[in-house]
Q: What sequence folds into this?
């Protein structure tokens, strides 16, 4: 099974919202997903708040061969380090 990490369209007209999901490549855009990995809301004014990611699960799917789409790859390159720092920060202090 070829797994892709891509965006699933949600929201409504003139108010887009996307979930970043792991999905079988043969499924349609809004088809049955394997796992939800985050979300992207392009309407949020603060650019750092537009994306929510689960870096541990994204790393897992990338390690087993899932391929991100072009747009998701851009989001991962831009925001992944920020979310890794947030998850590693509090646990490193204890």
A:
């Amino acid at each position: 099974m070829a797994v892709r990490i891509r965006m699933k369209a949600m929201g409504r007209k003139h108010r887009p919202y996307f979930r970043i999901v792991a999905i079988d490549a043969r499924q349609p855009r809004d088809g049955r997903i394997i796992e939800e990995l985050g979300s992207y809301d392009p309407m949020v004014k603060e650019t750092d708040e537009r994306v929510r990611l689960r870096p541990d699960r994204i790393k897992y799917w990338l390690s087993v061969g899932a391929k991100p789409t072009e747009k998701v790859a851009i989001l991962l390159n831009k925001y992944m380090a920020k979310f890794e720092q947030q998850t590693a920060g509090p646990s490193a202090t204890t």
